[in-house]
Here is the input.
Amino acid sequence: MVDRELLLQTAAALRHARRILIITGAGLSADSGLPTYRGVGGLYNAKTADGLPIEMALSGPMLRRDPALCWKYIAELGRACLGAQPNAAHYAIAQLQRLKPECWVLTQNVDGYHRAAGSPPERLIEIHGQLAPLFCQSCGAVDPELSEHLQRPLPPLCKHCHGVLRPPVVLFEEMLPERALETLYEEMAKGFDAVLSIGTTASFPYIHEPVLRTRVSGGFTAEINPTPTDHSAGMDVFLGCRALEVMEELVSHI
Ligand SMILES: [Zn+2]
Here is the structure.
């Protein structure tokens, strides 16, 4: 059950805030039917069908060494994401961004559902990249046909030079996208009046840092998760539920 007091307290804090950061993770897209995953590869919890840990199969080094094997798992992720769509919570977040012109979204999800739901790209930080469009690792050409390639033999190859295509997603052992990271740190330096963390354990330091900074500077922090995380006790408000159960109502009070 959603605690109404806490929901209204959160709505009031967001209403009074100017600069807001919404942090989202796999739990948000789980309500769309996507499996929750750790990093990009948590579609799997242990070993892959190939007997490899997913961290190895879905890594930058594997994409170079054995593109067909790596692509087997990129394709699984791709089919899962293309087979589902944004849910009411994604739309409520986009609505909040319309109401609050200085509301940003920092997402770890690569499914592109925030953009699909109408979140403005200029206030969206996709810190683990996105699944589309594919691009050629050899010549850089962009290829918009992710779903078509998933029906064909893998790995997908470039039309122009036959290089291996890949998504602009952060695989294991790869660096975070420089521009996204820069934007995050620029916005963090300006500070946030309120941070709302949704469906994530915030286990990466760059995900938890904005929460810590906001708390230290006296801002409001809240978390929405079905079960408490390591960080829940430090939040001003913890709402123990799924985002889908509360986001529409929360935004309706702002
Ligand atoms: Zn090419």
